[in-house]
Amino acid sequence: MAATVETSGIAPVGRRALRAFLRNPTAIVGSLFLAFVAMLSLMAPWLYPEDPLSMVARPFLWPGQNPAFPLGTDSLGRDVTAGLVWGGRISLAVGLAATCLGVSFGIVVGSTAGYFGGRIDNLLVRLIEIFQTLPSFLLLVVLVAIAQPTIETVTFAIAIVTWPTVARLVRAEFRTLRERDFVTAARALGFGHIRIVMLEILPNALPPIIVTASVLVATAILMESALSFLGLSDPNLVSWGSMIGSSRELLRSAWYLSAIPGIAIVCTVLSINLIGDALNDALNPRSPGIE
Amino acid sequence: MNRRRQMLKVVRRTLLQAVPTVLAILILNFALLKLAPGDAADVMAAESGAATEETMAMLRRQFGLDLPVLHQFLAYVGQIASFSLGFSPRYNLPVADLIGQRLPVTLLLMVSALTIALVIGIALGTAMALNVSRWPDRILSVVSLVFYSVPGFWIGLMLIVMFSVKFGWLPSGGSESIGAGLTGVDAVIDRLRHLILPASSLALFFIAIYARLMRAAILEVTAQDFVRTARAKGISEASVVLRHILRNALLPVTTLAGMHLGGILGGAVVVETVFSWPGLGRLAFESVLRRDFNVLLGVLLLSSLLVIIANMIVDLVQAWLDPRIELR
Lengths: 291, 328
What we know:
The structure holds 2 protein chains of 2 kinds. Chain A is an all-alpha fold. Chain A is 74% helix and 0% strand. Chain A has one domain (2-44, 95-290): MetI-like fold (Orthogonal Bundle), CATH 1.10.3720. Chain A has 11 helices and no strands. In chain A, helix 2 crosses helix 11, helix 4 runs antiparallel to helix 9 and helix 5 packs across helix 7 (151-177). Chain B is mostly helical. Helices cover 78% and strands 1% of the residues of chain B. In chain B, strand 1 and strand 2 (93-94) form a beta hairpin. Chain B starts with a helix and ends in a 7-residue tail after the last helix. The chains are: A mainly alpha, B mainly alpha. At the A-B interface, helix 5, helix 6, helix 9 and helix 11 of A face helix 1, helix 6, helix 7, helix 8 and helix 11 of B.
């Protein structure tokens, strides 16, 4: 993440931030765990080439009962470890893709509103307000239910409910930055709007955007898991939420089936939040983290 | 007198500002209803088992589904203005009645969760801010991040495993013991026992948010001049913290609490499903399963209106508490 800042022409800030980030022990723990999850997810096709939805052993093996299936098997004899590894792919992919989409859209709307101001600003702020009024998870459920749950619709729907946060932030940053001398200088040089927005203002607005984006990845993963827990996800794909959802009825007899994927969610989301927190301390030393 | 006129002005402006938002939300709801697969005629036909082309056309005419979209939208707005949200063939009840039945229990759950979150969050945040950068602050920061990272549905399930299945202390679902015929104090205790687990699951995430907000607010207030003046006057530290810092830090936190109402409503969908809590969230989930979009969008519309009302109240309380605040 810090590398993006460096390439954007404010190298000293980037290097200082990177050093501050690396001095933070919780950030290191978070990064290492996230790297571990990302590696497992990338290697899933080689580690567990078989479909994680296929029956491989006796059902209801408890964790540790059979060394071939260290985390046990579920009610249909599916390997929980394989499910975790494949489910991690979905969680990370949806989290990253939804955040990229949401952040891009948020930047477009927020920078337009903040840079131009006036009537466009008024209109876009209204739009942002409307989306922030709708209870986001409920809107998410409605969107996915109407569009039929597939991995693409879930990703898009999460992006639709997350962009207003980014747009609001980007707008505020642009409003303060556009009054600064370097922007006036760029205008005096006759640069076009797009060049000023993309190359002059945006790089300077990046630090808070990066922090928000990291928190949004965590939020997106939580949203995806809640949706798939409710059964609003692609039925042909295993995800952590769907593993919990499908073993919910067995809570009394086989609670490990709900506990294990949940621990995976908590650890992954926590590691991303730890990274986000450290990024926040490193990039905006003055402001608090989560809104 | 002057103050009262100012408040009236504030009320009027807040109401006026809400009008376009409500209108836009109506348009969005209507558009989503149109996008949903199957219209009312399809639903009726599916309910009755079979329908000819002619019956379908007649049903569509009867429901006004053959009219231009703008007419349909106006009819929809007119319908909502008369507090009708349509009819649910699945439940055989008007949607508004259905929502009315479910709303009180959801509000009970939400208010309980909000109270728990505020009390614990403010306490944690204060503890963090008073020990800033020392180990209690660091540990509590990580704890609050853990709270922030736990999915509400999962902690709900784990609480059920722990307190209902293993220890058998608390009920695992529902909002009261059905058929127990409890009255008076027993009924209240029964309700509370059903409330503890879902309200805690829902509160966890917001405890983290309020703790962090409170920490930031206290740190900001502490840096201000009047706190230094108070200390310089020789007032005891406890009094500085309680009377000067906390009182001023509480304002932004409590007003922000109202803004998270939408988030709590969203969380209620999942938590109510886990605990079979018979509220709005569960109704939304059931209507997804039954593909009953009239009900689903009714819930969305009503909860958006709830959020708008909450935001208006927040604005008013803010203006009342702090006359310096000019409304947005």
